[in-house]
Structures are given as C-alpha cells and as structure tokens.
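Homework-ish question, so no full write-ups if that breaks the rules, but can someone show me the predicted structure for this set?
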Amino acid sequence: MRKKNDLEYLRLNKLQKFFYRIGFFITNIPKHLLTFFIFIGKFFVKIFKKIGNEFKFLGTTFVHGSWKTKISYFILGFGNISRGQVAKGLLFFLFEAVFIFYMITSGGYWLGKFQNLGDAAQVQVYNPTYDTYETVPGDNSFKILLYGLLTIVFIIAFIVTWRINVKQCYLCDQIEQSGKKVKTNKDDLKSLLDNNFHKTLLTLPILGVMAFTIIPIIFMILVAFTNMDATKDGYSNLFTWVGMDNFNELFSFRDSSGGNLSLAFGEILSWTLIWAIFATFTNYFLGMFVAIMINKKGIKFKKLWRGIFVLTIAIPQFVSLLYVSKLFAKNGLINGLLMDWGIIKEVIPFWTDPTLARVMVILINIWIGIPYLMLIATGILMNIPQDLYESAKIDGANVWQQYTRITLPYMLFVTGPYLLTSFIGNLNNFNVIYLLTGGEPTDPRLLTSGGSAGSTDLLITWLFKITTGATNNYKLAAVIAIMIFIVVAVISLIVYNIMPSNRNERDFS
Amino acid sequence: MKKILATLIAVVLVSAMVFALASCGNNPSDQPKTEKLEGTYNILVWTSEVKGVKEQVKEQIDKFVAANPGLTINATIEGIGEGEAATQMISSVEDGADLFFFAQDQLSRLVQAAALNPLGVETTKKVKESNDASSVKASTVSDKIYAYPATSDNGYFMFYDKSIVKAEHLDSLEDIIADCEAADRLFSFNLEGSGWYNASFFFATGCISEWETDATGKYVSVNDTFNSDQGLVALKGMQKLLKSKAYNDSANGADFDAAVKSAVVISGTWDSATVKGILGDNYGVTDLPSFTVDGSTYHLGSFSGNKLVGVKPQTDAKKAAVLQQLALFLTNKECQLERFEKFGWGPSNLDAQKDPKVANDETLSALALQNKYASPQLSIHGSWWDIAKTYATAAKTATSDKELKEALEAYEKAINGLFNMSTDEKESFTVIGKFADNEWNKDVAMSQKPEGTWYTDEPIDFKAGDEFQVRQGKAWDVQFGAVDATTGKSTKNNFVVPTDGKYYVKLVFDKATGEGVVTLEKVNPSTGWTVIGSINGDTWSIDLEMEPGDNGVWRTVNSYEMAEGTEFKVRQGKSWDVSYGNGTANFVVSEAGTYFVEFNPDTTVVTLVKA
Amino acid sequence: MSNKEIMPKQKHMGMKRKNAISNFFIYFILIVMVVVWLVPFVCILLESFRVEKTWQVGYVIPHEWGFGNYVKLFTETDFLKWYGNTLLIGASAAVLQTIVVLAVSYTLSRINFKGRKFLMNTCLVLGMFPGFVTLIVLYRVLSDIGLTGPNAVPGLILIGVAGSGMGYYISKGYFDTIPRSLDEAAKVDGATKFQIFYKVIMPLAKPIVIYTILTAFMGPWGDFMFAKYIANGSSAGMNVAVGLQYMISSPGNISKNYTMFCAGGVCVAIPITILFMCLQKYYVEGVTGGAVKG
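A: Not a homework solution, just the prediction itself:
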C-alpha cells in the first residue's frame, strides 16, 4: 500500500481513514517485525554494554575509592555509618546480615534442590505398635520450586542493594573530594517528601505487585517446563523439569490416542475472539444508545432511569446469573410462559443447543454490561460542547449525521483506551460463562480433544477446567496461560497501533 | 541430603519390618493392638454441609471420646459436600481435613494424591466383617483398603407423579414417555449432563466399563465394551428419550414444581424429601423401567455407590491410630443408624441394613429394587464422566446407525487416550501377546538404543508356540509380528516363537518407511556383556560377543587363543561405564592357552575356561 | 431546501411534533428495557420472601409471604459471620486499596521520573497474563504464613491490596485532566512535592477518590473463585459469596436452600445499592475522567 501524504490522508472520510490505517498497519507488518528484531538486537547489545560498564565501574571504584568505600564492598553500610549516616548504614548492614543468615540456614538448601526439584518423595510405613500407617516426610517439589525461586529473587535483591551501597559510597567519596559535606539522614528523609516523593509513593505498591503478582507469574511460567499434574503432585510423586515437552504436546496436532489439543485450542480461541468482539461492541454501542436516550432533552426522571439500570450492578453476579440461567432452562419460567400462552409447542433448548447457547451468553452479557457503559457514556456525552450540535443543526445535519459526525468520533477518541481494556477484559471474562453455562453444552469433538472443553468455553474457563478438573493438569494450564498471554498481547499491539487516540496520553485531557 | 534421606527411610523400613516380624512371633493376646488411646488431639473434620450433619458428627465424636478415658479431641467440623471434599483435599493435602466424608468415585484420585491413610491389619478385618461386600470393594485400591464405608445409598432410581404416569406403564420406558408427552410434562433424566446417569442404558444391555489402577491409584487399563453391538442397542434406547419433546436434561427433585413440570425425575435418595413435599399423595418411587429395541427388552441399569470416610496420612502414628479408631466408630452400626434416622442415609453396615426401619423404608426399597440391576461404581477415571457425555450429545442429533457407531468409536478413542501417554510413550514400542503370564493383556516395555533399534528391557521366558506382537503407543495403529520370508519385513500376523528359551524381542524400525523387522535375540547389546582387550593382538578395538547361559553366567561365543600377558576386560553395552576384569583392573592371562571367557554378572567375577 | 427557508415556522411546529413522537418512542423503549432489567432483580426479591417452598418453583408471586428465609439465614447458618467478614474485607480494601491506587496513579500521572514509562508498560503486560492460574502459588504462600482457612480474611485483604497497584488506569486518567499549571504555581510558591499532592491536588480529586473507594468496597462481595480457594472449606474464613455458594453446591441442597440463597443475595445487594444510589454522581464523574467538570 502506498503511503498517502498528509493532504491526501486528511481528505479521506472517517471510515476510509480507519481502513487506511488498518491496511497500512498490515502492509507494514514485515517492517514492524524487522524493527522489532532490530530493537531486540539493540536491546541485548545495550544490556551487554551496561553489564560491562557495571563491572568497570565496580572495579575502578574499588581501586580508586577511599578505604571506607573498600570496606563497604564487604561490610554493607560501613561507608554510611563512618560518615554519620548511622540509620541508613545500619539498614544496609542488617540486610546483609539477614541475607547471609538466610542463605546459610535455608537458601542454600532450596537452591541445591532447585536443579532437579527434589530426590525422594514421602513414603507411608506400617507401624505395628498402633496397627496403622505413618508418613515419613520427603521432598516437596512444589515448595522447592517456589522457595528456590524466592531465593533467586532474594539474591538478585541483595546484589542490587549491594550495588546501591557501593554507588552511595562512590558519591560520598566524590562529595568529600570536592570538600562539601555529605547529606545527613535528615536530608534524605526530607527528600522522600520532595524530590524522591515518587519513591515514597511507589515502594510499597511495587513490592506488593512484585511479591503477589510477578513472582507467582514467574512460578507458573516455570511450571510450564515441568511435568506437574495430578499424578505428579510434588510430594507423593515428585515432579521435575521436562523442557519444552508440554509445548510440543499442545502443538503436536496428533490425534493418535484421542488427544488433539491443537484442535481444541484453535476452536476455543476462535470462539473466544468472536465472543470478545461481540461482547465488547454490543455493550459499547447499546450502552451509548441508552445513555443518549436518557440524556436527550425533554426526557424526564433521568436519575431514576439511570438508577434502575445501576441496580443490576448491585446484585452480585453469582446470584443474578444463576437465576437468569435457571430462567432460560428447559423447564424454566420463560419456556413455561411461552408454553402457557401457546406460542410454542415444544420447549426451546436455550442452553443445550450450541449455537443458541452462544447467542444467549452474548445477549445476557448485554444485560450485565449496559449499565456500566451507560454510566461512562453519560459523563462523556455531557462533556461534548453543545455548540457543536447547534452549528451542526444549522448546517442541516439530521440526528444520524450528528451522531456519526460528532458523538461517535468524540466517544471513540475519549474511550479508545477503555475499549481496548474492556476487549481484553472480555477475552478473559470468566464470570459470565462460568456462571451461566459452565462451558456447556457438550461438544463431543471438543470434549474428546482433551481438557474437557464445551461449546461456550472461553480460553479462561477452559483453563479453569484443566486446573481444577480430574487431572489437575497444571503443566498444561501453565502452557495455555502463556498462550493466552501471547494472544492478548498480539491483539493489544494491533489494536493499539490502529487506535485513533494512541498518539499522546496527554491528548486525553 | 538424598543419601541421608534414603538411609533414613531404609532405617525406618528395616525397623518396621523387624517390628512386624517380632509381633508376628508373639502370642496374639499380647499384641499391642489395643494400645490405649490417650492424649490431646486437634483434628479437622469435613462432613456433608446438609443441615444438622455437622452437629450429629460432633455428638458422635463426643461419644467416642467418652468411651476412651484419657483422650481429648478438639474437633473443628466444617460442612463440605462429599462431592467436593476430594477436590478440596487434593488442592492442598497439607491443609486438608484429618477425617472427611467423600464420594467413592474419588477414591483412586485421593490415593494417588496420598490423601488417604491405608487401614491397619486389624481395622481392615473389622471393616470387611461389618460392611456389605460392594462397599468394601469400593474402598479398596489394589488389595489395600483405604477408607471406611459410611453409606450404601449413592444410586439413582425413578421418582414419578402418580397422577400422570399410569401404574401399568411403570415397566416400560416407551409408555412412560408417551404418558409424559400426552400430558405436556417433562421427563428429567440427566443424560447429556452426566455419564453417571447415561451409563444406565449401557448397563441395561450388558456393557461394562471396568477400570484398573495400580497400587498408587494411577489408572493403568480399562475394559470397556460400550463400543459394541450392545452399546449400539443402548444408544438406540437412549434416543427414544433424547428425541422426545418430553426430555429434560436434569436431575433435580424440584423439577416436579418447575414452570414446565416434570412427571418423572431420575434422581437419588437426597431428593426424596423434596419430591415428597411437592407431590404429596401423588408421590411415586420405584426402580427404573425397561426399554425395547428390535423386540428385545432391557431393564435400565444404574450405578450403585457409597459414601466413604477417609483419614489423612499422619506423621504421628499415635494420631493416625486415634483417627483410625474414630473413623471406625463413626461408621459403626449405631452411628450409621443415627444418620439414617435423621437424614435417610442408607447404611453400608450389614447389621444396620437388617434393622426393620431401614428394611421397610420406601425410598431405600426402591433403591434396593433397582440395585438388582445396578453395577457397583468402582474406581472410574475422573475424566470418564465428561467423556461419557459425548455419545449422548451425539445420539440426540444422530439419524442413522452409522452416526451412532461413530459416536461410540470417538468415545472409545477418547477413553483410550486417557492413559496419559507422553509423546515418548506414544512413540515407544511394547510387546504384547500370549507368553509367560501375559494373556494379551500386558504391555512389556522396550527401550530404544541406538536410534531405530528397540529391545525389551528384560529377556522373556518363551515357550515354543507362544505368540506375540510388537505395537506402538499401546495401540494397534502400528504393529509388527511374523517376518515375511520374501520381503524380510514384519507383517501384522502374530510372531510365533519357534523354540523354548529366554529371549529379548528386538525390533528394527525404520521411521521413514514405517517398516519394521522383529527378531528374537539372546543378547541385548545395551545390557549385554562383551570382551575387549589385546586378545589375538587386537588393540582394544573389537568387542567379542558373549552369550548368557541358563545359570545367568555369560560366556564368549567362541574360544580364543591367548598368549601369556594378554589383557582384557568384560564390559556392558559396549561402553566403559561398567567394566570388569580382575576386579576393576584389567584381567591378565597368566598361562597361555585357548579359552572361553566367562563372566558372572552377580558376583562380577571373570574366569577363564579351557576350551 | 427552499421549503425550509420559506416556511420556517411550519418547520418549527413539525420539529416539535417530531420531538414529541421521538420522546414517546424513547419512553417506550426505556420502559421496556427497565422491565427487562428489573425482572431478575424483582424475581430474586420475591423468591426471598417465599416461605411455602424452599426450592425453585414455576411461578413468581409467592403464595405465602414471610421473613422466614431471612430468619433462617441469620440463625441457622454462619451468614452473619460471612457478612461481617465481607464487610471487613470491603472496608479494609476501601481504605488500603484506595491509598495504594491513588499513590500509584498520582505518581504515574503527575511526577516525571526515570522508569515511569517502564512501570506503566510492565503493568500493562502483567495485566495480560490470566491471573488466576497463579491461585495455587498464592494459596501456598498464604498457607505458609498462616493466612488461609479460618484466617482467610487477612489473607484476602493482603492479596487484594498487594495487587491493587496495577489498577491505576482510570484514576490516572482522572489526574491527567487536572491542569498542570496548578502544580507549577505551587512549585513557584516553594511547595514540596508532598505538599502539592496533599494540599493542591487531593482536594480536587474527590470524585476519583470516592470512585476508587466504591469499586474497592464492591469487589469482595462478588469474589468467590479466589476466596473459596483461600478459605479452603473453613466456614470462619468465608465471605458471603463463598458461603452462599456452598449452601447450594450439592444436588440435594439446592432444593432445600434455594430461597435462603436468594435472601442472602438480597442482603448482599442492599448495602451496594444504597452506596451506588448515593454516590452515583461521583461514580460517573470519576469514571469519565472528570469530563463532567468541563
């Protein structure tokens, strides 16, 4: 596709611009890929250079540094203490002490076992005195994997702290050489509310995310390279590293003994995408439509209308969705009423017909999603300058034209990022599917492909079945989680690139 | 660490054995089996969340404590359904309950996760004596009892509305369906939603699905005849209901009171109170009906099952003993009767079953009636329940026998796929046939070394006339047998062993062409021994073949002339990982002569035998 | 075209009538929608007052009304305990999560520092990983520090607060809309960054603070997957969602407890509905990133 110059581009109408952008993106994929690989390459070069510089820095600082600095290389915080920053220095020292203590008492043990995740599982031994069996404990692969990982993280944290300690000594050396006074603890504390205020605000949140999001994710990624499942649970039967075996299994396209996971994955992925597109856009446009209706001049009781819709947010979904799913059951109220009124002769299989079930989950999702969208759209609509509409009216634009020329572009511009996040949210929308259908109805072909998936299962609910089902197939779940991650990342990248409001976050205001 | 642990285990094992032997020698009367239960224990108990069960279990535990002076139990009791308990246990055995009620189909899963402590010798005896046979069988995994039967009532039968279903129609599925359709009522039978219910039709026609586990609870094989002519008849019978407008895929007593009311619900004892409440005088309960296909009539079968009590493995033997006695107490006659009276749970205890109140119970009588046609629900692979849904779903839309057969084939393929084979396992070969203790029912493992050449790990003791096949991935897609004389390749005919002897089965498999050659070999090169050295002026470059004798001693095939000072070693698998001469040093010939070299792998001694 | 210019008055009349017709249609659509949206809500409410039968039935209006289900719910089950747990989790989340979210979103929006872009990208990437597969690890970690089973409540609070930093998105959007000139003016006056945060920006951020509190408070009421795992079957550690789920989990029980389950649902809906009704304005303002301020 030929790149249009600015003038040509501006002449296009909205739709053409949109398609131009998509086409442009697609034709540029090779270029993007190239840039990506060049970026990766540069990234590694940069990393290696940085590491080199790091060693150089550490070396020269040690050689040229004062004796205080030299000692600080081994006793953390010495430089700080000897310069009067006692509290800070003690913190450094304490950290080192804890680190060494931990490594000696348990860190070494976990690291040692990390290589093959344990040697001997627990055994049950008969005890004739009490005529019963007792358990002789053994290794636990799960714990070894977890605590091994934590130990590695701890080591990295120590190295980083050590580096900060050296850097500080280096800076102090510099300051002393130039004859100025080193900052006191008090100065440091003060800066935490001013120049270093961001550190104050972010330290705890980052630690929290580190401990309870990042480390668990790394753990699960590691699990994808082990053979952990119900038969290899980690304590009664140890699990161990298996390299890429699990990935091979997912992509082997084999059908020799029933398991064709690639087929199941493909089918479920395509339904997940269809679902996410419908769920996102039906909600988006219908929610906007409702908001426009309520906002229209001359419509009374605006607050009441909104309030009623908001009511549905308030009932927890596990109650309301359960009720709705029963409502549409074969012997549910809807079928009952339709039969009584003589509209139908036979009950409608809302949940047992695969296509109908898929339509139903999308429709019911509208029921859930509209209130949120309506609230969001309400605020944005109120904010559109009214003179735009006035001048449009004077130019003779009808309602539809006003909508497509003013309202929609404005909404899309402002809610672009929201659309992306809600699309991603819908890809991983667990509640609606799990509570409404539980993945049913059965699809024989999917079911026998491994992982017990049903017709309405999304990747995320399938993942749930794999993890909690009879086989507790954690290794496969970890692989699929990684796959979901890749799918979501790729889609986000594409959408992000063709989205109108991605240029500058500051434009948002 | 590995060594320490191994030694520790060994020490414990040995001491346990010594104890066991010692106690065997003792007079039974002074066996310490009646070791007094004392001390204070904190235990966690999971029992049904049905209202009142927790309280009753609490009372029963108190009774147990009262009967054992010196014993204190601080029990925390939580309500977790029998269906859910296993999943919850497995998610973290460490934090799971010490004593819990669960549904029997979860047994092997729990054993596999080491969440159940096996019963001691005496306790096993007691459980076997006092409970009905099927409940004992349901608690057993490869000869060891792992749980205590608590009920024998986990089955299904038919609830019906007397005002709709005519009494004379109760024996015929077709008539009942017609009654329902005529009255615009539904027939609730959870056929698509659960293999537990739809297996009913297959049991009716005599199909079986029997699963076998090894001692660790891992499933190793299945004998499943659903994909057969009888299975086809079963599906045809099932279609009668599936295709009826009255069919409702559900198993809920409240269906009798739904917007579109059911006239029949296939469900179990847990629904009897609800159904009685809804139907009142019209309450009807009986065994399942029969269906007719091609003129033959088949009475619907069912699963009969149990609730069991499990005890978590403990590192403290004393606590394990206390829990064992407590579990025994909670499942004794009195406790089971109490549970029957309050909740209608049908006892597994033989004495309790004879109690007149139990014997005359209306619902339990219907269950007993149905039990004549029931198959005990032994260990069944957890994924089976899902896979068994497939044929019902397929049968609903199927219009020809061909489609039904395809559904059954897909089903069979899926259950065979459950034997969780890794890619390696799927690609590896095994020997199966009629030899030694093999009756075409066991796969003997083979290993590949080098690429393309497979040997059985152990030699097989063949008799002349034995037959076997070499197959891949324990399936019959790729198989090799007798060698065709003209092509020199193996055919699909059985390989017939010509003479008695211990042989390794060897397969040379060409991945590219898919052709293979099966032969019998005396020696497996990767475990076989060869002689190498300076014999005949060789410079340690040629491996001289050896053959095993009947006494296990290996001997060179040929004899060799050896000069004085000739050196050699005997090595395994033509590699230097394991090799012997004079000890681990080279063997040096002290006197010139012509010799066979002999080697005994058990003693690792090399000797020269004059030719 | 010419018509319009010649007879502006007539057109005006036509507009008015057209307006009335379109308003009529809008009312009609709104009423239909409101009925559809309210049906399940009203039905659940009615179910909770039905005392004659405890199972799901084929009619809507109870034959016999009463508070029996509520009485049973509070006296025969641990509902009060679960309710208290959820309130505690919700309240703690409302305080702690709000602090964390505001700290993160404020920093990312208004302080320029090295690594800011990197942090934002990391959060975006982390959000793409399906979080609940990490359940088993989180359970193990919490179990090892003793925050599962009966002690699940602090565990749930901890997990909720720890991960909340990643949900900065909407509130950052809000901070982005507050004019930068305010910061600069304060800076010229010699204010530290903390003072700018505390004295200048925070007073302007009321809607987003309330929005954050509201969403943080609401979350735990519907959380059952994770909470169930952490509670591990211990009634003392359950929240309302998990407790109610257990009530109807096995086949015989749904018939015995269904109306009580609905009563529980209504009890959960009450505080959230009230909060939502009162704070709707702030919710809208917050979620639209201060668009209403104009």
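Now go work out the reasoning yourself. Hint: Residues 88 and 153 of chain C are 8 Å apart (CA to CA).
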